[in-house]
Amino acid sequence: AVPVALVAGLSRAAHFGVLIKGARPLETMARIRTLILDKTGTLTDGRPQIVSIDSHGGMAEDEILRLAAALDQASKHPVALAIVAAARARGLVLPVPSEVAEIPGEGVVGSVEGHKIIVGGDAFVARRVGRAEDDHAALAAGSVLVAVAVDGHMTGHLVMADPLRDGTAAMLAELRREGIERILLATGDRVDVAERVADGLGLDGIRAGLTPDQKVLLVLTERKNGPVMMVGDGVNDAPALAAADVGVAMGARGAAASAEAADVVLLVDRVDRLGPGIEIARRSRRIAV
Ligand code: ADP
Ligand code: MG
């Protein structure tokens, strides 16, 4: 039987919008040593705005955006949703893409109006068109860099801004008070972008350019030092959430796959509910034992 204090804890947490899937994750939450945070959509707001569109071969900005958005209609990645929304806001009509293949957390490949389009992270697209990664000066203004290739040529970059969620620094301080010893940022994005986002947050480390499998490896490595909590929002985070002692999904806007793989789902779109969640877990455990 589950002790009454744990049941009360689960229900108090749910009241805060923290859905904990049972007594065991609640109990484990009280013992977390290491916290691994995904970047886009977890630490950041996850609704990036376009700051600028850089054309490399003379294609009009709106045309670059139109082709990228047409293909990104096939993706539920937060960056893809933002690109589609930005194109629609400019009144662009988006054709339906064909032969679409999404590589989760990296980008999408497909065909639009007979042209082969690749949209995704700069490293991903650069690799596929045989070009070096962009040394992007304009990125100083933003925090997400999306590359667009058309018929094998790097045609443009979308520089986007994705601000940190409000209260992130305060939340991290609270988690340290609740006994978390080590806080890491894990992202599929570029290291320079990750460093800029993490600047001033006092994190214990940044792991960038990670594939979904590498996020899993990071979780498994960190587990050698004690229980690990991993927080993420994307389809690409689902395996890492499942590998963690406690996986936490950003449930309100995150991918359904991440909510399914998680032990804890934040039903409200606020990562700062983690602090109260852990506090409740620790208190329930003290009463229950
Ligand atoms: P994080 O791990 O920080 O949540 P992701 O690994 O999900 O970030 O994405 C990293 C980067 O890959 C994004 O910032 C974006 O540049 C690019 N990206 C991934 N999927 C897409 C997509 N469908 N459309 C455009 N860009 C994408
Ligand atoms: Mg993410």
Automatic annotation (TrEMBL):
Q: Where in the cell is it found?
A: Cell membrane; Membrane
- Please tell me the species this chain comes from: Actibacterium naphthalenivorans
Question: What family is this protein classified in?
Answer: Belongs to the cation transport ATPase (P-type) (TC 3.A.3) family. Type IB subfamily.
Portion of the full sequence shown: 273 to 561 of 635
UniProt name for this protein: P-type Zn(2+) transporter
